Amino acid sequence: MIIAIDGPAASGKGTIARRLAAHYGLPHLDTGLLYRATARVLLDRGERLDDAERATAAARGLALTDFDEDLLRGAEMGDAASVVGAIPDVRAALLDMQRNFAARDGGAVLDGRDIGTVICPDADAKIFVTAEPETRAQRRALELAGRGEKVDFTDVLADIRKRDDRDSARSSAPLVAAADAVRLDTTALDIESAVAEAVAIVEARRKG
After folding, report:
1. Cβ proximity of 72 and 114 under 8 Å
2. How is the chain split into domains, by residue range?
3. Distance between CA atoms of 187 and 184, rounded to whole angstroms?
């Protein structure tokens, strides 16, 4: 069983994906880490994030075992990932890695921005997780503050909106709900309620 979870930043898709993976005993891949890791390589080398040739080379050199999540989290890395993720050749370079993960025996849960539309268009269940920008900004601000980062809500909201615009407007694999995805709005839901809704969606797809 392949479960595809898509949605914008701070919508709750990552947490929902991890909980679904645990619920069904499936491996989970946060595909956003691939783009964050690509950006991290460029930043560590002092190279431009929008240098398509160098970004593509960095993406091709990644391995799933290379990730240090502590170095890939935070507002700076989220924005950097959005920049490299807008480069078509970077997305192409990471395509097979994501599809190979999804093709594991028994299936997998993947979350990102183009799972249901590009990576796994034939996924057994597709969920597009969303929430109002202000709600997402509040969640992200709390997350960043919890890691000790200095937070200004206005700046966080502006960053959320900027990333939404960039991810939705890019020419390659833009952020959009698959035609057969079920939308899950988490604006008014706590995580337990959101996960329960997601499980119900998956179960409905499995039965029908």
Report:
1. no
2. 2-203
3. 9
CATH topology of domain 2-203: Rossmann fold (3.40.50)
Name the DSSP letter for residue 49.
T
Structure tokens at 116: 């249901």
Q: What is the DSSP string of 125-171?
A: EEEEEE--HHHHHHHHHHHHHHTT----HHHHHHHHHHHHHHHHH-S
> pTM for the whole thing?
0.91
CA distance 203 to 208: 9
Q: How far apart are CA 208 and CA 187, in angstroms?
A: 27
Q: Which residues contact residue 197 at a Cβ distance below 8 angstroms, ignoring those fewer than 6 apart?
A: 184, 189
Q: Environment class of residue 127 by beta-carbon count within 10 Å: exposed (0-12), middle (13-18) or buried (19+)?
A: buried
- 185 forms beta bridges with 130
**If you search the block for the tokens 């909201």, which residue do you land on?**
157
Q: At what angle do helices 13-24 and 191-207 cross, to 10 degrees?
A: 60
At 49-76, the pLDDT tens digits run: 999 999 999 999 998 766 788 788 877 8
Count of alpha carbons within 13 angstroms of residue 133, beta-carbon side: 13
pLDDT tens readout for residues 95-133: 999 999 999 999 999 999 999 999 999 999 999 999 999
3-state secondary structure of 56: helix
Supply the Cα-derived Rg of the chain in whole angstroms.
Answer: 16
Q: What phi and psi, each to the nearest 5 degrees, are found at residue 154?
A: -60, -40
